[in-house]
Every structure is written in C-alpha cells, then in structure tokens.
Batch of 2 targets.
Target 1
Amino acid sequence: MKRVIFVDDEPNVLEGIKVSLHQMRDEWTMAFAHDAVRALAMMEEAEEPFDVIVSDMNMPGMGGKDLLHVVKETYPQTVRMVLSGQLDAENVVQAAAFAHQILRKPCEPALLRERLTRAFALNNYLKNCPMRDDLFAMCGIPSVPTVYWKLLNEINDEKPSIVKIGEIIETDPSMSAKVLQVAHAAYRGTHNFSSIVDAVNLIGLKNIKGLVLMPGIFELADGSQLPEEVDLERMWKHALQVAEFAKRISQREHDDTEQNDEAYSAGLLHDIGLLIVATRMPDKFADAIELRRSRGMSLMEAEKECFGATHAEMGGFLLDLWGLPEHVVEAISFHLYPSSTPDHTYRMLLLDTRDGVSALTAVHIANYLSEDLDDLIEEQAKAKVDHIHLADLNMSDRLSDWWDLCFASPTTDMA
C-alpha cells in the first residue's frame, strides 16, 4: 500500500480531501493531521515511512516550511508537497527551497490524484542508484558559468530587462528547470504559458531575483572539480543545439505552438542528468567514463554499471519529482531509446503524437543529429537512432528530411 499524510489546520480541508480521495482507500493508506507536531508524531509512530507528505504552508505553531524542513532531514525519500491557498509567485519561490511540488487550493481532485500517483510511482525507480538520496535532497542544479554570470550582470544592471533575463535563462538547462517548476506551481490553471520565456515573464523580475539569491537554487557549477573529460561549455552548447533542432523538427511536423515550445524545453533539459552526476559525483562519473573507454561500452551501459541508471533516467526522475509536465519528463527519461519506454506509456505516446512528432521523438532525433557530426565524441559513444521507434511511427523515411532541416542554417551561438 502506498502511504500519504495530509497536514492542515482547517478540518474542512482535510475532510474535503478525504471525501475526494475516498475511491483510492483500497490502494492508498491515508493519514490526516491537524498540525505539524501531530504529523511528525504520526510519521515517527508509523511502521513504514510515508511515501508522500502534503502540507499547508500557513499553520499555527510550526508552519509548513519548518515541517517540511524536518521531513527533508529525517525522511529524505518522502516526497514533499505543499497545498496552500496563498500561492503567488513569491510564496512559490520560497516554497521551492524545501518542497518538491506546490499545489494551489482549491485543488481539483483529478489533479491531486494525478500528482500523488506520479509521486508514488517514483518509489519504483532508481532503487539501487547511489544518486537517489541526492536527487530527493536537490533544490537546484549547478549552472554553466557563462550563463550564470551573464544573468547576474543583467539582474544587477541599473535597469534590468525581464525580456533579456528570460532570453538568458532560456539558454541554461538548470535555471530553466527551476523556472518551469515554479511557474507550473504558481500559475497552473490560471495562466497559459508554454515557453521558458513566458514562464519568466509570469514569475516577474522581483521573484527571479529571489530565486537567484536563494542559497542552493541558482548556483555556479565548479568546473575545477569535474572529470577531465567533462567540458561544461561543450555540454551547454550541445544542449542548446539539441533544443533548437528539436523545435525545428517539431515545427516541421505540425503548427502546435505549445508542443513546439515543449520540444525546445525538453531538448534543453535532455542531458540535465549528465550535469547532475558530473557535478555531484565527479569521481564516480569519471569511473563510468573510464569503464566505457576500457571495455568499449556505450556511456549508457557504463552508467548502468556504475550508477544503476543512465543519466537520462536520473534527470527524468528529478524533473518528475519536481512536477514538470509528463511529456517533458518522458522526453528526457527515454530520449536515448524511445522504444524502451514502459509498454503502457509507449502505447500512449504513439497515440498522442498530436498529428506530428512528440517531444520525445523530436529530442531523440535532435540528440542523434547533434552528436553524429561531432568529431570530439568517440564513435562508440555517439547516440544511435532508434529505428524501431521510427518504424512504429511510420516515419523511417523522415530522417533525411530532418537532417537537411537541422543543418540548413546554423544554430544559435550564445558564447
């Protein structure tokens, strides 16, 4: 049985949740606490740890912020969610330092069930991965120095431009991931946005500054600690190229602006797991690189042996934990081999191409094209085309067209 505890000082809220989730009682064990002290006591008394805690922010005595900080330290693999009626962008920015996901009251029962179901599913993944605790504890991901300093300079300008700030953040995978998390939490269901620049505009200059100044959220990657083979600038330029290629491919197949922006976001974030393992566990990642070289393995095989998971799976896990859209998470998790997606999800992806390619397909092809002509990548380490996936989509003949499309004009160079 999956286990979740709800914490709120308003009895009507707890009763409403109990009623709305009544149909899940045979699958989930649900506990309800009227204050933080009682919640911690119930968690301590429980025979098994709770998988998820859902807490209000503002409660008498110990508030949600302090409660979730305690849970973070004491129960590191419990998914931490905020459910609050006072969720403007400023409050969401504050909550992003200690909560994995933030939901607004009143929360539609279907959305709450969907978020809880996704959170419960995380317990089935990365069971033997040494990065698992780090991923649960992570509130931010280190950024490439080039972009980080450019952002600081613009924010500290006498007249900072929110447009320029959005354009800068849109080029950095780490900052973009956090901005998308905050925007989806603060504005889901109230504002329409599909791009990272739109998300920055909604969050606003004041709150972007708050994210930048908050310890552990927007931080600078320390290149001196990375394995010799890891070049942050090259990783960054590759992410930008994949993002642009993915968007071009998506635009060629349909005119759905939301999905085209989704393809760009997923392409930018596709190697976020690589950035995480390289900066958080550089020695172990160096072992994976050496294993790949000495045994003639692919990087994916070497990562499986060293981490029990690929960088794609680890990146997808973190962004799923943060509540990013499912299509983006799927594109990141399975971009190396889309046909390896779990059967049920894969069937849904094939059905839901929205009269064109999905973000997953666009990112998979974009990554292959970006690496194929890169002479600095060893042949055995380059991404391969998943021909099974293209055949499933009846799109095997589209590859040459996508090649011409992506290399017809140069991609953006932010250096």
Target 2
Amino acid sequence: MLFKRFFNQSHSLNSEQFINLFAGGGITKSGEVITAESSLEIGAIYACVNIKANAIAKLPLQLFIKSKNGRERNRSHAVSHLLEKRPNKYMTPFVFKHTITVHRNLWGNAYIKINFNGPTPSSLDILNPERVQVYKDTEGQLWYVYTSNKKQEVYHPDEIIHLPYLSTDGINGKSPISIARETAGTMKAAQKFVGGLYKNGVTNKGILKTDTPLDKTAKEKVREEWQLVNAGVDNAGKVAILSAGFDYQSITMPLADAEFIATQKFNLAEIARIFNVPLHMLNELDRSTFSNIEHQKMEFVMDTIQPELVSWEEECNYKLFTEREQKRYYVKFNLTSALRGDNESRAKYYKEMIQMGVLSINEVRALEEADAIKLGDKHLVSLNYTFLDNLEEYQRAKVNSKNSKGGENDEGKVSDD
C-alpha cells in the first residue's frame, strides 16, 4: 500500500504532541490550547482573517480570451460560469472565495477539488484542509489524500487547486496561527482573566484578614459567603459589610496598569504584523491620520491582497484549462473597485486617462456603472500630441519656414535701397 509504511509506524505521544498532530494546534506557555479553529475566538485574529477574506471575496474573478486587439471578456466558457456565477450548488462566488481565504489564513493551505465533465470543469468543491495530506511517492509524484468518514480518496495534482500560504518547500504551507500561537495564547489568557474579574467582582478585589485563627472549613465558609454577597457584575459597586474582627485589604486592579494595557496593544500589533493587516483596519488609530490611512489602504491592496490574487490566478490558469486553452484563455481578478479612491482622485485619474486616449468616455462610465452615451466609444486625444519622429520633421519645417521668410525680407530691403 502506498502509505503503509507511514501508518504502520508506532510512536508514543504526550498530550501536547497529540494536540499538535491531531488538533492542528499546541499548548502555549500561557497554558492555552490554540488551534486553527479555536483561534477565531480571539478578536484580533477573527478580524484580520475576516478583513482579508472580505477584501478578496468581493473582487470579481473574470475570464478573458486573447484577441488581435488585446483581450476580451468571455462569459460563454464553463470556467466563467464556475468563477462568476456558481462554483458549486452550495456556494456563491463570494462565499467560495471567502471560505478559501479563511482556510488559507488559518490552516496555511486551501484545497479545491475540480470535478470534470470530460476535459471541462463542471464544479469546484472545497476540501477541509484538516483532512488533506500531501505525499510524494518514490518516483517524485505528488498525491493528495483526503480522508472523509473513515474513507480515503487519492487525487492527482491535476484534480486539486492547491493554494498554500508561506511555504519552506513550495508544497506545504505554514499556518500563520503556528507563528502567532504564543501571542494568541497570551491574548486568550487575558480574555479569560478579564472574564474572571467580571465574574468574581469588578471592584471588591482583595483579601479578608482576621486575627482569629481559622481552619480550612471556616476559611471556605467565609469565602463562600463573601462571594455570594459581593462577587459578580450585579454586585459591583455595592458596599461590603464586614463582620466583627474582619478587615478588608484592597488589591490594585491590573486592568488599570499601564503595563497591562501596553501588553494588549503590543499583542494586537503583533497579530496585525503576522497577517499583514494595517492597524487602522483593526480600529487601532493611535498613530493614524487621514492622509496616511489612504496610503495604507493602497499598501494593503498592493502588498497584502495582490500577492494572494496572483497565486489564485496562476493556479487556476494552469489547472482549469487544457494545454490548448491555456494559449487563449486566462482568468484575472478585477482590482478596480479595490483601488478606487475618493471622488476627487477618481475624477483626476479619469480626466488624464481620457486626455491620453487610454480610456473612452463610455469606458469611464462603465467603471462608474453608468449607461453608455452616443459617440462615447470614440477615444479622444489632444491636438498638441504627436509622435517623436514627426516632431523632428516639424522642427525642420519650422526652421526652413523662418529662413524662407527671412530671405524674402532681405531681398525686399535691397530692392528698396
């Protein structure tokens, strides 16, 4: 059997190794277990993954065919229907792209099973990344093994669209969660700590002291009575009444410490760095201004989103078309909506594109989702523009014209004398 040697090996695993192998996560130094799934319980990770997934899912992935004039949109091919209408019977294109991006950013890999009707793709099914393993046989051929309901299915690479995250071997992607696990564990522990403060009392945090020696049973009884009357959010701010002989010593609340707040901000920034998401998109605006937010938005599209789009395009162009079709067809994300600025910036851009003849009026109106107008398909260009080789001829003609006029004037002067 292909994987017999692998599955017949026997290992003794401790609890942490067991979690790392089968749960896709590990026990952090804070004591919290962080897996790809449980990491979404941390607000910063949830926000980063959702921001990136929404940014990619909203962009149209369109099919083009090469033509003599450049390229044209093609809506008749089966691939166009899958990418722009319905990848499978369960998902819209938005949900499909969103889910793939979530898998890629949590598990480090996203897998899409291509179902064929002859040579033509008929549907695209998303595979659970936790159940996919990539193996290489003795001849160097890759195989994708998908385990579902105790049944293994083996797929050839031509049947799988594989989108790895950062990789050290070019095949298996590394999950950002594995890099952010310690930071995520600290943030999760902090969440539990804050929750414990609210559960056990927001203001009445301290120690009860008495000169009378108490045995274990008496201590537990006093603690239970104190918790019953003073603990919890509902009892926050109420006056604590002490029995005779008891003294209450307050303990400073760590939430008020600058170090605690700074640690929380550092952890948020660390998560943002790992996922390459600007802090202002996580509502952290300490160092943000209106001008640099606009610049950071463009950087997010160009440096964070566009590299992921390129990996989508390259894999889809190779896997969704036959060798013959690859010479004519290709898919590409439309970044127009993502790069669209404010009204003033767009007006300036459109004006320059129209004046240079790059875009027609109707092409600009299409970008703004407005109806076409009569004669709007014609491209405009300024009369002041000419080709460089024509410019040299124009200058020579201009000099000759001046010389010709000068000679006539000289002759006129001589005859007058």
